[in-house]
Design goal:
With 264 residues, the chain is of the alpha/beta class. Helices cover 23% and strands 26% of the residues. The protein has a single domain, classed as Metallo-beta-lactamase, Chain A (4-Layer Sandwich), CATH 3.60.15.10.
């Protein structure tokens, strides 16, 4: 199994790669290529795919972690470059309209309708419960929240958005699993515990955004003490939070960037 970061806040060190706010990663293994999320801007996603010699048609599945623009904004451009349909695994709630109020009121949901994406070849498989959609690739389903979460945003009627559509990709490694999370809105501890419950195996590696920007020292300590997996963190983890966890965890946490490859 190999993970390649295609979209991330930082561009890394390979010439031709572009960084940008958002997240996308390609997982290759067991004869399949599964893309997780598409970042914010399709032009950036396609540029990085070309620079890393990844053909859009080579992707077998797209897994959407949740319905925010910085994880789905590249979806339309990706579909437009393909010559065949694409199966998309996600939660039924990804198309909810959602907004942020700070620093100004703005839309933060998927910037496309389901209909226009389906016209371009999207084949949505939307489920709440966990299921294995390809050998070794498991949709976590809706994540049980036992401890704190990191939900953000609102619905247009003013209700807080619990981001229930936040899901993670669980990758079977044999005697353990790796987990890919887009933003970790369900809370990193909840995500790990849920993945272990679903797979009945320990989580060895956790990759993605942990949404710890602005998190209190108490929450960061909770992560350091209760997550035993190797962490590859980026996107919404936050520089200060990453620095704190690095001081606590040392080499058990690494930063991700566009072009970074992780062997599982």
């Amino acid at each position: 199994m190999k993970v390649t970061i295609l979209y991330e806040n930082h561009s890394g060190f390979k010439k031709g790669l572009i960084g940008g706010h958002g997240f996308s990663a390609l997982i290759e293994g067991k004869g399949k290529r599964v893309l997780v999320d598409t970042g914010t801007d399709g032009r950036v996603l396609l540029n990085n795919m070309e620079a890393l010699e990844i053909e859009p048609d080579s992707i077998d599945y797209l897994f959407i972690t949740h319905g925010h623009y910085d994880h789905t904004g590249g979806l339309k451009a990706l579909l437009e470059t393909r010559s065949k349909p694409l199966k998309i695994i996600a939660h039924p709630g990804i198309f909810q309209r959602r907004i942020a109020l700070k620093p100004n009121k703005r839309e933060i949901g998927i910037p496309f309708t389901r209909e226009e994406l389906e016209e371009l070849g999207a084949e949505f498989i939307l489920k709440v419960e966990p299921f294995e959609f390809a050998k070794g690739f498991i949709n976590s389903g809706e994540i049980e929240r036992i401890t704190w979460d990191r939900a953000v945003g609102y619905f247009p009627d003013g209700r807080r958005d619990p981001v229930r559509d936040d899901m993670a990709l669980i990758i079977d490694l044999g005697d353990s699993t790796a987990v890919i999370t887009g933003c970790g809105h369900s809370g990193v501890i909840n995500i790990v515990r849920h993945a272990e419950k679903v797979s009945e195996k320990p989580v060895k590696v956790l990759i993605g955004g942990l949404h710890l920007i602005g998190a209190s020292r108490h929450l960061l300590e909770d992560v350091a003490r209760n997550v035993g997996a190797k962490l590859y963190a980026g996107h919404c983890t936050g520089i200060e939070a990453f620095a704190y966890l690095y001081c606590r965890l040392g080499r058990r946490i690494e930063a991700i960037h566009v072009g970074k490859m992780i062997e599982l």
